Amino acid sequence: MSNTKERVISAIIMTALVIVAVVLGKSTTLIAVMIAGVLCIDELLCNFANYKRSDFMYKYVLGFFCILFIGINGLNTLLTLEFFTFAAIMLNIFLIYYLFKIPLADGFMKKSAIERPAIISLFVIIPLLSFGVHFQTDAWRQVLGMLLIVTYSMDTGAWFVGKNFGKHKLWPAVSPKKTVEGFVGGMVIAAICGSVAWWLFFGESRWYYSIIFAACGAISQVGDLVQSKVKREFEIKDSSNLIPGHGGVYDRIDSLIFLSPFFFIVVKYLGQQLPV
User: What global pTM score does this model have?
Assistant: First the structure.
């Protein structure tokens, strides 16, 4: 089976699982988010930090994440969720600095993982602890749908345009397959899909929404570039081989969880007032 067919089939299955979880309700969706987090942490600890699943620290980190995730979303307090959203934004700012300012040759992340192996799991723990902030409205399904649509229309658009029309490499040292054409094409598709989805979900459309969603698409790709740089340091192609044609769970949601805290700001301050 070709890689493209594997990607398509895997994408259809993942989309179906997400739809089922969302239809079943908020609790089921949050459980699905927690499971995705557990799988991501497993990939980071085992494949990047070289932990064994029998190690105490491996069990401690996973247990810590699950207990905190259940506790935070069980309390369901916006203040707590906004605190972790702010923490996720601060983490992302640091990761942006790492991406653009710390040379790949320095091996910063690899050295940090050697000294404090569990710290790499924070890339997943902090943003996912804030993820429940998107559920603080009666329109949580639409908000979550918008986040998914913008992220994956950017990802799919960049892949399709880059594969068929890409000629100029975006950043070969970090991500050899990404192209300038793919990046721009992904932003355009994210702008179109995001604007159309917002109009369908909320019945409102303004000209500058397309700019906002294009920017959100670009931010999501920054998250993907961060992960690509980390993988280059560790000399790892994929976070795992769990998903045929896509790699690991972290490979699939790196852009999503990077965009997530910024998207909360978009919905709260730049979007229309949602029902609460």
Answer: 0.92
